[in-house]
Amino acid sequence: MFTATSPLPDLESGDIVIDALLGTGISRPLSGLFDSIAKHINNSKALVIALDTPSGLQTDSSTDSNNTIIKAAYTLTFECPKLAFLFPENEDYVGNWVLLPIGISQSCIDVLVSDNIYLTKDLVRKIVKRRKKFSHKGTFGHALLIAGSKGKMGAAVLSGKACLKTGAGLLTVHAPSCGYAIMQISLPEAMVQCDLQNNFFSGLDTRQIPKEKVVGIGPGLGMATETQQALKTLIQNIRKPLILDADALNILAENKTWLSFLPENSILTPHPKEFERLAGITSNSFERKKLLTEFAVKYKVYIVLKGAHTIVATPEGRCFFNASGNAGMAKGGCGDVLTGMLLGLMAQGYTPMEVCLLGVYLHGSSGDWALKKSSLQSLMPSDCIESIAEAYKDLEAL
Amino acid sequence: MFTATSPLPDLESGDIVIDALLGTGISRPLSGLFDSIAKHINNSKALVIALDTPSGLQTDSSTDSNNTIIKAAYTLTFECPKLAFLFPENEDYVGNWVLLPIGISQSCIDVLVSDNIYLTKDLVRKIVKRRKKFSHKGTFGHALLIAGSKGKMGAAVLSGKACLKTGAGLLTVHAPSCGYAIMQISLPEAMVQCDLQNNFFSGLDTRQIPKEKVVGIGPGLGMATETQQALKTLIQNIRKPLILDADALNILAENKTWLSFLPENSILTPHPKEFERLAGITSNSFERKKLLTEFAVKYKVYIVLKGAHTIVATPEGRCFFNASGNAGMAKGGCGDVLTGMLLGLMAQGYTPMEVCLLGVYLHGSSGDWALKKSSLQSLMPSDCIESIAEAYKDLEAL
Amino acid sequence: MFTATSPLPDLESGDIVIDALLGTGISRPLSGLFDSIAKHINNSKALVIALDTPSGLQTDSSTDSNNTIIKAAYTLTFECPKLAFLFPENEDYVGNWVLLPIGISQSCIDVLVSDNIYLTKDLVRKIVKRRKKFSHKGTFGHALLIAGSKGKMGAAVLSGKACLKTGAGLLTVHAPSCGYAIMQISLPEAMVQCDLQNNFFSGLDTRQIPKEKVVGIGPGLGMATETQQALKTLIQNIRKPLILDADALNILAENKTWLSFLPENSILTPHPKEFERLAGITSNSFERKKLLTEFAVKYKVYIVLKGAHTIVATPEGRCFFNASGNAGMAKGGCGDVLTGMLLGLMAQGYTPMEVCLLGVYLHGSSGDWALKKSSLQSLMPSDCIESIAEAYKDLEAL
Amino acid sequence: MFTATSPLPDLESGDIVIDALLGTGISRPLSGLFDSIAKHINNSKALVIALDTPSGLQTDSSTDSNNTIIKAAYTLTFECPKLAFLFPENEDYVGNWVLLPIGISQSCIDVLVSDNIYLTKDLVRKIVKRRKKFSHKGTFGHALLIAGSKGKMGAAVLSGKACLKTGAGLLTVHAPSCGYAIMQISLPEAMVQCDLQNNFFSGLDTRQIPKEKVVGIGPGLGMATETQQALKTLIQNIRKPLILDADALNILAENKTWLSFLPENSILTPHPKEFERLAGITSNSFERKKLLTEFAVKYKVYIVLKGAHTIVATPEGRCFFNASGNAGMAKGGCGDVLTGMLLGLMAQGYTPMEVCLLGVYLHGSSGDWALKKSSLQSLMPSDCIESIAEAYKDLEAL
After folding, report:
1. What is the C-alpha separation between C108 and C98, in angstroms, rounded?
2. Which member of A159, A357, B195, C304 lies 3.0 to 4.6 Å from A336 by CB, making a disulfide possible if both were Cys?
3. How many Å from the N-terminal Cα to the C-terminal Cα in chain A?
4. Which chains touch B (3 or more CB pairs under 8 A)?
5. What is the pLDDT of residues A214-269, one digit of tens each?
6. Interface residue of D182, D326, D377 to substitute, partner C, most C CBs within 10 Å
7. CB C373 within 8 A of CB C166
8. ipTM for the whole complex
C-alpha cells in the first residue's frame, strides 16, 4: 500500500495505489512534490483507486488539461457524484465511479449544488401515476407524431412504437405517403395520416389538431424547404407545448428567429451536435452546461441534451443529470425512441417537467433492462422499446 | 379501532377505520351524526376499509353526489359485487373491492338481482367446446371480416389475428386495396379480398357470402358515403347474425332507421361514446344500463358495452358484467381485438349468446395473462392476442 | 364391475363399464341379448372402457350404422391401432384409444395388415440423414416453390418458410408480381422470381429450372385459365417428381387427362374434398382408402391424404397412417406448411417415399410441439413452423 | 484391443480399434502388411479411433486417394488440428476430431506451421474493444451497405441487420427502389438511399460517401451491366478498404483487370465457387489454399474463403482457419450475414485484419449459439443474427 507521504517506490502491474487526495485541498492544481507523485503514479501500470475525487481534478469547473490529474481506474465517492464525473472529458481520470452511502439522510438532490440534480430511481418513482381501473383509452390521451421522410421512415416506426409502449391511449402518425404501408405494417396499433407529399412533411391543417392532442415532431423528418415552412406554421399556430427532435431542431438551427415562437414549456431533445447548431460552440462540458441552462431559461423550454448522462435543463434554470442508461444505446434510433416515450407521457397528462424527468430516466432504464438480454454491441433501439414494461415495473416495485 | 358509536377521535395517517355501515340500513342517505362521522372520516388520512358497502352508497341505483358517502380504500363484500361497485362513478367510494366467500352455495348468478349477472370463470368455462380429434378446418368455420380504410388498416390486422387465434378455421378479410399488402404481410394465415376502392369499403357482392360464412364488420372502417351505403346493402341482404363494431356503429348512429333491419341476434360492440351516439345520452351508469337493456330488447340484438366491467346486454333483457380484464387494455386497438375474437367464436358455431359471454371473458382474460409479461402502461393489443392461448388453457384447466 | 353374463343392472353416472367384447367374435354385428346389453350401456351415463375393440365395431371394414355399437369413452387396444380407429366415422365408438404394449417385439408395421402401416416415431427416425460437417448450402439443394395469387400470398409465405426451416439449402419462390414485396419482407432468406402477371401464375420458362432444382406447386395458386395452362406446360416438360398441392390439385381435377403426364413418383397432397374432386366420391373411409390406393398405383404417385391421421398412399399400394398431429392443426395454412416441408426434404435429396413419411410425421410432430406453448384453438400454422426444430431434435434424440 | 503387431483378428460391430499409426512414420503412404491391416480395418464394422492422425493420411499435403487411409470415426489429436483435418476431402478419414491438451504452453498459433493458424476463442477475445461509457453513435461509425436487387432484397435485409447487431453506430443501405419499403419495414434502424433504378444498383455519387463512412457491397446485388459499371466506378474512386461479397465478386471475376484497382486491405468474402471464378480451378484443398494465399498477397487484400473452417488469407501470406460454426449454417443467407458483420466491425474502427479474424469467429459462434435453440436443419440466418449478442458475451466472459 502506498500513500502520498512515503518515498516514491517502484510501481508494477498488480500493485494497487489508493489516491486519497494529493495536496491540501480539493480542486486545486497539483504542484511540486504532489505533481511529481501524480506523474509517477500515472506512468506506472498500478491499479489506481481514488477516494472522493482523483487528485488534481476540479470537480465543479473545467480542469486545465496541462495540469497533472490522477488517472484512476475506480473512484469511490460519497452519496452523490461530483459534477465533473458526469462529463466525458473526465472519463480517463475518474474511471468507473462508485457511490458509497455515508448515512447522509437527505437525498442527492440536496447534496449536489442546488441546481445540479442527479436523477435517480428514488426521485423518479414518485412521478409515476397509478393507472385507475375505470380508465379508458381517452384517459391516456391522443398523441400526434409528425415524423419520417423518404429513407428515414424507420425513425417514425421506432418513435411511434415507443409512444404507445409508454402508455399513450391513441396514436396518429402523420407521415409522407411513402411511409404509409411501412407504418401500418410495422405498427398496427397506430393510425396513419398521409401527407400530401410523397417524400416529406409538407404541412398539416392545424384545425386537424383538436385541443386534446399532444404533438411531437422531428424523428427522420428531413429538411426539405416545404418541411421547414410547415414546421414554422405549426409552431405559430399551436398553443400547447410541443416536443421537438432531430431535424425539427436542425430546421430551428437554420431559422433561429423562430425559437421565440415556440410554445412555452416545449421540450427540445438535441444531441450535442444538434445543440451546438442551435446554441453555438462551447469549449468544454461546463461551459456547455451553462449555455444549456441559459438557453432553457431564455426560451422558456426544456432541453434534453442526450449523452451518457442525459441532462434535462429546465426553464427555471435547473439541470438534472440522468443516472440510467448505457453505452449500448449509442446507436442510430435510440433518440427516436426517447422522443416517442416523451410524447407518450405527455399524452397521459404528465406536466412537461414530469415528462422530461420520468421519460429520460425510463428511457435509460429500458436500455439497461434490454442489455440484460443483449450485449453492448448488439443492443438495438427496438430492444429498448421491448423493455419499457420492465423499466416501469422496476419503478413501481417497492 | 374506531366504530360509529365512539366519540370522534383524532384520525391520523396510519390509523385504520372499519366502516361497518353507518345508520340503520343499507342504501339510505346519511344524516345527522352519521353524516358528521362520515365527513370526519373522509377528511382524515386514515385507511378506510368498508364492510359490505361504504356507508351512504346506494347499491342498486345512482347516489346523489351531494350526499355524504364514505370513501373507502378497500371494500370487503360477500359472494358477489353490488351493482354500484361495477360503475366508474363509484370508484372513489368503493376503492378496491374484494369478494369474500360466505358459504352460499349458489353462484353469483342467483345472488345478484336476477337480471344482473357477474360473468366469472366458473360461468364461462362451461361454454367452451371440446375440439374433437377428427375435426378439420371446415369444422371451425369460415369468417369474413370487413375492416380497414386508408390509415386505419391496423384495426383490420389486429382484428383478423384475434379471429384466427380464437379458433376460426378460415378467415377472409375484405379490405380496400390500400390494405392489400399490409394484410398479407401481417397475417399470412388470412386470405384477402380487395374492395374495388383503394381507400375504403364500398361494397360486397352479397352472393360472395356463402351460407356457411359468418360476418363481422367495423374495425377501422371509416365513414365514407360509399361505405355507409355498402353497410346498408349488407344489412338488408344478410340473413345471419352480424357482428358490428366501431365505425359500423357510428354509421348506424347516423342512420338510426337502419337499426330495424339488423338480423336478429346480431352483436353490437360499442364503447360508451359510441353507445351514446346510437342510443342517446344518460346521466349516470344506472340509467345507461337501463337504456342498454331496452335497446337490446327492442332491436333483438346483443350489445357489448365495453368498459372496465364490459356489459353484455341480451335480447331477453339480462345484463352480464365481465369480471376479467385490466386498465392496461385502455389503448386503441383493444376493441378491434374483441371484435375479432367474437367473430372467431361465431365461426366455430357458438350461439350469439355464447359468443358474447365467452368472447368478452376470454378477451379480458387474455389481457390479464398478457399483463403478467408487461406493465399496465406498456400492454399492447398485440400482446393480448398472443395470450389468447393462455386464456383458453386457464378456462380448460380443472 | 359389470360383464355380459350378469343381469342388466341400473347404470348411473359415475359407474364404470368394461366392455370386453360382447358376442363370440370380433367384428360381427351384435344381436339378441348382446344387442340389448349394448343398447342398455349406450343409453346410460356410465363411463365405458372398451378392451381391444368396442363391441359391434367392424375393425377392417365399414360398420353398418344401423347396427348397435358400443360407444366407449376409452378403448384400450394392444400394440397397434385397428384400422377402424383411424377413421373419423368411428370416433364416437372408439373414443380416446390407448395403445398397450404386450411384449410383441416386432413393430407395428408387421402387426397391422401388411399394407396398412402405422407411422410412428420409431419408423421415421431411421430416415433422418445426419448433416455432415463439411456440407454447404448446395449440399441441401435448391427448391423452387410456385405459389400464391392475389389475396392468397400468405400461403406462399407459410410454405416457403416451412421449406427453409425443414432444411433446404436455397429457396426461390416464383410468385405473381403482387406478391413481390410480401415475400421479400416476410421471408428474407428466400429469393423471389416475379411472374409476368400481377395477380396469378402464368408460366415459367422451364429452361429456368436447372436439373438440380426440385419443384413444388400449388399453395394459394388460384385457378385462372392462364394458371391452368401454365401448370399443364410445367407437367409436360419437367422430368423430376413434382409436389402438387391445393389449387394445383383442383386444376388437375378439372383436367383429369393431365394426370397421366405427371412425372412418376410425384407427390400429391389433397385434403378429403380435393381428393374427392380428383378421384370421385366414396361412401365411407374404407372405400376411400381403397380408392386412394388404386389412384396412387394407377398414376404411380404418392398421395398424402390430409386428416387427423394423414394417410400416405404409395405407388406400390401401401398405406401409412400418421401417428402425430392434433386438432389444433385444423386451420387454414397448415396444409401449406406441409407442402413446404415436403419440398424442403426433397431438396435435401430424400427419396419421394422418404419425403412423404418423414415429412408427414415431422409436420404433425411440429404441431404437437407447438401445442405445448399454445392451445388447440389458438395454434397457428406459423407456430408449427417455429417448432420444426423441436420436432427434428425429438426424432434425433435417443 | 488390437494393435498392428497382432495377427488380424475378426472384427465385428461393437469392437473398437485404436489406430496408433501404422508404419514407421507420419504422412507416408501405407504399404505391405500395414496396407493390408488398414484395408482389413476399413472393411470391418468396428469403431475406429485414430490417435494423432489416421494412418496413411498426409497431414500437410494432399493424399493420393488411391492409397489406403484408415477411416476413423474419431481422431484424438494433440493441442492443434493438423492442416488436413480442416479440409472436406478428409472428413471420411478423420471423422470427428477432438483436441487433447498435452501441456504445451504456447497456443496453437505457434504449434501449427507458422503461417497456418487455428482461429480460436483465445486468439479472438483479445481483439474485442471495450465500449466506453461516454461513447455516442458517432463513435461507432457510419456504414454504407450497397446491396439487393429485384428478387434478392432479403440479402440486403439480413446483411444490414447483422451490421447493426454487430455494433455499427449508423447504417445507410443503398438499394434499388424496389427494395425501399422492404428495407424500411424489415429494419427500421437503418436509413435507406434509393438508387435511380428500380431493379438494380446503377451507381452512387461517390461524393455521397463522406470520409468517415465504410462501405460494403455485394449481397443480392445481381450482375446487370449498369451494376458492373457502377462497381467499377466505385472501386476506382474510393480510397478506403472495401468489403466485397457475392455478386460483387462475380462481377470482378468477369472483369479480372479491375482487381488491381481494389483499395489495399479490402476484404473479399467468396465461397469456394466464387473463389474459383475469381482465381481459377484447383484440384484439392491444399492447392486451393496455396492459390488463396498467392491471391491475397498479389492483390494486397484479405480473402475470407467461406466453408466449414472458413479461411482468412492475409496480404502477408498467412492463413487463419476458423474454429467456430456448424453445418446448420449451410443455408442461403448466412454469407450475407457475415458480410454485414464484417462491415459492422469495420465501422467501429477495427483494422481490416481485426475485422476478418473477429468477424469470422463471431459469425461462426453466433451460429453455434443459435443452434442451441434450433436444429441443424432448421437453423436460419436470422437466428444467427439474433445470437450475435450471445457470441459477444461469450467472448467477453472470463
Report:
1. 14
2. A159
3. 41
4. A, C
5. 999 999 999 999 999 999 999 999 989 999 999 999 999 999 999 999 999 999 99
6. D377
7. no
8. 0.91
